[in-house]
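Please decode residue identities from the backbone states below.
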């Protein structure tokens, strides 16, 4: 069901502009309330969630067409969250790299700190990638980049990265990259840290690549399940919920043709970095009369 471009499109875009990323179920709830308010008569004939889902899909598609037509550096993407496997709708900055994306809100030193934090998060040592950085290590990075950072200043900057949607703090007091950041930085992360399916870097034979792509959804994995491997260690990793869907659709054999392993319920690396500290949901501010 395609709506004429109008108030609902503007409201949904403003909502995404405010929140940047929101679970699809909550955005669907917002759209439903908007539709009930603006199209009372039509709402009486619309009583199925699937119809509202079609309306939402049409609204998001129309908004993306507008963004492209006006050559704005944004796109609306829908991805499954690593944290719970549910769809998240995101307003993504399509600028070239993290420095360009962050330049409006951060100075050169703060961008250098964020890049150093990424280096730590995606550092691959002995075939294992940490995917997270502890508060102490993050503070040390900040102090190394600038003597002006006290522990208090460093914690405030970390909180700013969290508030802006770049990082999220886990239950084990570590910071990892958010779904939104992984989506925005997808290409630059692969270019900088390389795909784990490639054994080593040409310029540094001792440093393996560290970015794993989920075979089920083609997105970066930092939380989920890894193949236990056959005769040799395997690079394949799945998002937690993607592994279940993959096994149902294609069986439990590892998609790596060089591996004889079987995809199991072994959890890696979620157990090491913890789940998000706060419930990964958003408060709805929209209310009808």
């Amino acid at each position: 069901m395609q709506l004429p471009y109008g108030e609902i499109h503007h409201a949904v875009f403003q909502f995404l502009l405010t929140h940047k990323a929101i679970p699809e179920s909550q955005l669907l709830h917002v759209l439903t309330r908007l539709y009930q308010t603006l199209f009372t008569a039509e709402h009486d004939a619309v009583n199925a969630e699937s119809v509202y889902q079609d309306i939402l899909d049409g609204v998001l598609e129309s908004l993306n067409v507008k963004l492209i037509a006006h050559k704005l550096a944004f796109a609306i993407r829908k991805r499954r969250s690593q944290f719970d496997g549910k769809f998240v709708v995101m307003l993504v900055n399509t600028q070239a790299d993290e420095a360009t994306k962050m330049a409006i809100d951060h100075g050169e030193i703060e961008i250098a700190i964020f890049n150093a934090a990424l280096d730590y998060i995606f550092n691959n040592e002995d075939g294992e990638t940490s995917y997270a950085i502890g508060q102490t290590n993050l503070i040390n990075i900040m102090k190394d980049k600038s003597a002006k950072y006290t522990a208090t200043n460093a914690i405030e900057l970390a909180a700013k990265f969290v508030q802006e949607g770049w990082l999220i703090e886990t239950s084990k007091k570590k910071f990892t990259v958010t779904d939104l950041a992984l989506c925005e930085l997808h290409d630059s992360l692969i270019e900088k840290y390389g795909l784990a399916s490639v054994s080593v870097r040409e310029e540094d034979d001792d440093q393996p690549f560290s970015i794993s792509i989920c075979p089920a959804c083609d997105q970066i994995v930092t939380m989920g399940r890894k193949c236990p491997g056959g005769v040799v260690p395997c690079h394949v990793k799945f998002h937690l919920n993607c592994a279940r869907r993959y096994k149902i659709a294609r069986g439990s054999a590892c998609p790596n043709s060089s591996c004889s392993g079987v995809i199991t319920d072994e959890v890696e690396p979620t157990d090491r970095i913890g789940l998000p500290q706060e419930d990964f949901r958003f408060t709805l501010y929209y209310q009808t009369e």
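Observation: Confidence is low (pLDDT under 50) at residues 199-205, 279-289.
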